[in-house]
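New to this. Explain the following:
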Amino acid sequence: MTDAMDKAVAAARHEVVETGRRLLASSLTVGSWGNLSRRAGEDLIAITPSGRSYDALQDTDIVVTDLDGTVRTGHLLPSSELPLHLAIYKAIPNAQAIVHTHSIYASALAVSHRDLPPFVEDLVQLTGGAVRCAAYALPGTPELGARVKEALGGCRAAFLANHGAVCWGTSLQEALTCAELLEKACHIYLAAGGNVVPLTDGQCRYINGFYEEHYSKRQQGLE
């Protein structure tokens, strides 16, 4: 690797560790379940290792692979959901980071194979519409990646049937925020007994467009 690539990989590994601790603190997962990753260059990703608790991770524990899944750096096995992450990165060039959670309320919809209608403005800003549930596939399989890719479409989130949820973002911060907003929306949806009034397609497009064109830039201090 070049010096620039080494720096990009080191920065990605560090950010994955820090975000993993935030993920655990947010109660979106427990122990070593769930996983997260971030692009570490054009053809590399940094992903959490398999079976290791987030609160004990060090930067050097984060595994770096290429987009074919070959380990390039790291002494541990990558997350068993590596095929899921790779499927999303290959299908969605704008995806720079992925957070996969086993949070309670999102999992409640996942186990009932239900989609979440677009009824909460803050989540719709990121997703642009309904969050769909992917058809069931065994964890860690290419089939799961293919089904989640189909469920995502142009959305930033999807449910994994009988499993949990996955969100992607243009940064790890955005992916984690999407996961937090998704959990909140699922909680509201279930508290309302599913009796919610969805936003119209036009309203969803407007809200999502405002986020993409303005609000996301303001969050980064660019506008």
